[in-house]
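Trying the structure run again after the queue cleared.
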Amino acid sequence: MSLPKHSHLLRSCYLFYHENMTMQEIAKQLHISRFKVSRYIKEAVEKGIVQVHFHDSNIEHEKLALQLEQSFPIKLAVVVPTPYGSDINAVRLAVGQAGASLLADIKPETSLSITWGRTIAHLVENLPSDRLKARRVVDLAGGFGQVTDEISARAVTLQIARKLNAQCFQLPAPTIVENIATAQALSHEPIIRKTLGIASESDIAIMGVGPTDVDSLLYRSGYVSESDFEHLKERDAVGSIFGRFYDLHGGECDTEFRERAIALSFDDLRKIPERIALTMGSHRIQAILGLMYGELITTLVTDSDTATAVLEKHFALRGKRSENGTNVSATIEERDQSSLLRGEKV
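Done. Tokens:
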């Protein structure tokens, strides 16, 4: 996976002019060649993008993305503008579209694992048909229930497999079963073992993030009750991915739900090279932090309001917020022309 050229250009310029990083350091952080960094910086000056300040409204979002990458053990952050008015459905759509763009260069030999969710459904909807190819698509967890009134949990995996012209493997089980005995019996079923084994061998995992409240699809689908959430919070749960609940450090909570989930284990998840979370919302801030603190994900896709709140909460927890209370999303301080261009380093 790779970012669009324009994102690499903006990031290269920001790190060069405002973070005083060398082109070699930038190349290492952005996983591109030093030659490309040099070319992007030159192109930005020639096109007038870099003058006294950046002439691109997206720079603030790229700045937030870079701050996330520098603050947490993740490879990539993608931040989209929070739509005007902050309508949650519009935010989900924007984040889903950004997630779809990350798959634009997916390779035909790629194995992809996925969970169900409303934002994931938007990702699938925004993938082009018959233009992409992958090897296979597989469920990360069981899934009986509705994502929306129109889309079932099982339809999400089938739809993305069709769009990627890929072989589809689904888990024929609920995400969370009624008791531990049932979970143990299902875990010995050959089709369950085979599907979870295939999921563990994925190249990319894509997941939504569930909060520990009634907005969670686990609640909406009847897997978890309000009293269950109270019990989970007592055990320090801050969020869930594919039916598994975790704390602020990314450790799976020691509750009966751990044994009742029909899903990939966290240990197997961490073996997948690229692990992408699509999420947003003020009620998911601690859930997002837990994912990154626990290195459960390598890529975060979110909106600018959520990214700002995540960084502010992180700095508050770590005691790193500036003494004067400067907001982490404050506009980049303008410098004079000679300091900004620093032509001697290009």
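Residues 106-297 form a domain with the Rossmann fold fold (CATH 3.40.50.1360). Worth checking whether this holds up in the mutant runs.
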